Amino acid sequence: MDLPLCLKQKSNGWKRTILMLNLKLPKAMLVHLNNSEVSVRQDSGGLVSLTDLWKAMGSPSKKSPNDWQNREATEELIDTLCGILNTPKMGVLKSKRGRHDGGTWAHKNLALSYAKWLNPELHIAVNQAFLERLEEETNPELALTRGQERAVRGWQKQGKDDRWIEQRIKSVSQRKAFASTLGKHGVRREGFRNCTNATYMPLYGGTSEVVRHKKGLEKSENIRDHMNELELAAVNLSEKIAQHTIEHNNLWGNAECETACLSAARSVAKALKESGVRSQSSTQTILSKS
Questions:
Q1: Are 108 and 187 members of one domain?
Q2: How many domains does the chain have?
Q3: Which of 254, 230, 213 is nearest to 171 (CA)?
Q4: Is there a contact between 248 and 256 (Cβ–Cβ < 8 Å)?
Q5: C-alpha angle 55-59-63 in degrees, rounded to nearest 5
Q6: Are 172 and 72 in the same domain?
Q7: Is residue 151 part of a domain?
Q8: Does residue 287 sit within a domain?
Q9: Closest C-alpha to 289, from 221, 205, 184
Q10: Distance between CA atoms of 199 and 260, rounded to whole angstroms?
């Protein structure tokens, strides 16, 4: 039977190994392959997209997920895994139709087996990605470090320089602290969105939807990845002032915190205007479109 690396143990150790692999993967994990990064999706149930792995290798003929499933060794492996996990086949392997989540999805151990059959280098890369996730489960600081390193590589590929990247990293940290403060002070559900829009209004002349429109961004694109250094600094300062105001005055709830955000952003917008910063497209927008 063609067992993946994580199952090559004595039978009495299989269950422990599989339980170790029952970590929650992100919606998409990055697999490092041939000096590049491949994005592999994961569904809400934790199953990994075999279709993404197949496409990452150029969709080779006679190597599709369906071809792999028809192998006798694969059927034996699936039966063994189902027995260990005490779950029906649909719990470890399923096919879906759809524009965004279509394809073949499988348990992480099956994904390793498919990757090995598909390409030895891919197998090692996927196995390494899983091992890194296990390490990050026990060492969250490591996850933060790796996550930042991945983000930096992504920004560098977008052509961002070191100064912009430094400012963007600060903005990520500030945003997390800001969101944490909002949560501790009773902001719930749409309140987070409203506070963000209250920050954008004085600086951009509209909500996040307006900002997206002005910058020509799709809904899936991160607005702050398309801000320049000045924009990032202005938004960061607005959130920092609002955070201080909320904490110092012990404000509570969506309405009070939203008002604090609006007031903070207005003060930053006023300072920018007085310093000579002008919009390139609208007298009502302090920050430029770029």
A1: no
A2: 2
A3: 230
A4: no
A5: 115
A6: no
A7: no
A8: no
A9: 205
A10: 9
Residue 284 lies in a domain: no
Three-class secondary structure of residue 282 per DSSP: coil
Stated as kind and residue range, the H or E segment containing 58 is none
Please tell me the distance from the alpha carbon of residue 142 to that of residue 75, in angstroms, as a whole number. Answer: 37
Considering the domain boundaries, does residue 149 fall inside one? Answer: no
Tokens of 168: 């963007």
Structural domain of 130: 5-138
Q: Which two tokens stand for residue 141?
A: 């600081």
Whole-number Cα distances in Å, 257 to 171, 184, 248, 253, 266: 19, 11, 12, 6, 14
Q: Give the DSSP H or E segment for 106.
A: strand 103-106
Same domain, 133 and 165: no
Q: Per-residue pLDDT tens, the chain, 290 aa: give them.
A: 444 444 444 344 444 444 444 444 446 788 888 878 888 998 888 899 999 999 999 999 999 999 999 999 999 999 999 999 999 999 999 998 887 778 999 999 999 999 999 999 999 999 998 888 788 778 888 877 888 888 898 899 899 999 999 999 999 999 999 999 999 999 999 999 999 999 999 999 999 999 999 999 998 899 999 999 999 999 999 999 999 999 999 999 999 999 999 999 999 999 999 888 754 433 345 564 43
| Residues 194 and 258 sit within 8 Å (Cβ to Cβ) | yes
- The reply to whether 193 and 108 lie within a common domain is no
Q: Are residues 92 and 176 in the same domain?
A: no
Hunting for tokens 């939807």 — which residue is that? 209
Which helix or strand (DSSP H or E) is residue 70 part of? none
| Token pair of 114 as six digits | 């498919």
Judge if 134 and 172 occupy the same domain: no
Task: Clarify whether residues 132 and 172 are in a common domain.
Answer: no
Six-digit token pair at 25?
């993967």
Q: Are 116 and 2 spatial neighbours (Cβ–Cβ below 8 Å)?
A: yes
